[in-house]
Write the structure tokens for this entry.
Amino acid sequence: MKIFGQGLISLSMRILTVCSRICLVALILVSRPVCAQPTQPIYLQYDGFVHNKDGSYTLSFGYFNMNNVDVTVPPGEANGFTPGPADRNQPARFVKGRHRFACSMVMDKTFDGKLQWTVKFAGKTNTSTAKVLDPLYELEHSSEEHATSGLDVASAPKNVCVNRPPSIHIGNPFAPPVPDGQMTGKVNQDVMLVSQIEDDGLPRAGSLKIGWKKISGPGDITFADAASPTTRAKFSAPGKYEIELSATDGERTSTAKVTVQVS
């Protein structure tokens, strides 16, 4: 009876241990965050139009992806223009956040003002305004420059979104301007390099690639991450350095430069 009792106790302890492990695994699985599916809508935005000198029009569309992840909506019924063709080379990958001037489209002189973009996602439908040529939507100078940046109106394909080179701005937009456009730093100390890069998501099969590199200077530059829009740079010797930031979508490339005086 004693041996049987000890065996029963041992078996009970084993069962308790197994049950405890199962409960622990279950608790971990329940508490572990599950990758949330994008459930928020994509809002379309009509930026406005430019009446070009040759009588044609440049229309600009943007969007606001309310999700915390990028979303892909293939061209077709859920991502298209009316009147057709529905596929006008518009972005199919919607990057999270707000993006103006994501589609710049040159319309010929006969354009009658009838064009709307519709996107259906997460059970919600959003369509851009029908008042495309309303004078209230004519872009002022600074917005006109954004809408037509990198766009050759004369040679651009008509009635479709045109792939334009990425837009690059080096510097913190919320900080005071750098004196004389030149940054300063010290040998072997980190200098923060900040930039903002916008791309239209075209071509659809392309991907945005970013790179910092040294153009000139007396010493070596070590980048914490040369493929990041914002990174740190360390300089091995005093002197004046020129650094270039490039961004390419696979077809079009943009570059911008900054000077750093190191002491």
In short: Confidence is low (pLDDT under 50) at residues 1-9, 22-34. The chain is about 15% helix and 40% strand. The radius of gyration is 27 Å. Residues 42-162 form one domain.
